[in-house]
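Private note to self, pasted from the team thread so I don't lose it. Backbone tokens:
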């Protein structure tokens, strides 16, 4: 068992914590109904920061936009059932493939779609879709700002994070 932490591990943990806290604070400030989605997105995006946060953030943002839109369309025009859920997940995958999007866009889109189609607490599905997109976007944007502004860059990264 290793007892000593490397500075890059300490840096990554601190950077992720700051991004998560800032995203949660902003989500609460904007009174988003399910503020936990913003720090979750910030955490996921921050942990990928070493591999080009802007590129990864863009993929996830586009995937989320597609996922919430397709999910809201499905819930607006059909009844929710397991076969219709399977169909819209497949449609999202095909749309992402047709647009030559990275698999991470499909992954984030499928998660966002799932949240939208399984949230029965709000009768207006488009409000649910919009707030999920705002939550995730806020988390991604906060993570990108923290990564860009972070004073200590891990070894082997360029100043742009890519």
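Design output:
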């Amino acid at each position: 068992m290793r007892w000593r932490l490397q500075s890059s591990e300490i840096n990554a943990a601190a950077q992720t914590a700051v991004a998560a806290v800032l995203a949660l604070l902003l989500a609460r400030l904007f009174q988003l109904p399910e503020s936990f989605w913003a720090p979750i997105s910030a955490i996921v995006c921050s942990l990928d920061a070493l591999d080009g946060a802007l590129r990864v953030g863009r993929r996830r943002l586009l995937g989320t936009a597609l996922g919430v839109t397709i999910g809201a369309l499905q819930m607006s025009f059909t009844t929710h059932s397991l076969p219709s859920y399977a169909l819209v997940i497949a449609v999202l995958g095909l749309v992402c493939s047709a647009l030559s999007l990275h698999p991470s866009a499909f992954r984030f889109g499928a998660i966002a779609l799932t949240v939208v189609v399984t949230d029965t607490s709000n009768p207006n599905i488009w409000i649910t879709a919009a707030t999920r997109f705002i939550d995730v976007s806020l988390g991604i944007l906060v993570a990108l700002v923290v990564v860009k502004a972070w004073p200590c860059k891990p070894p082997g990264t360029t100043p742009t994070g890519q």
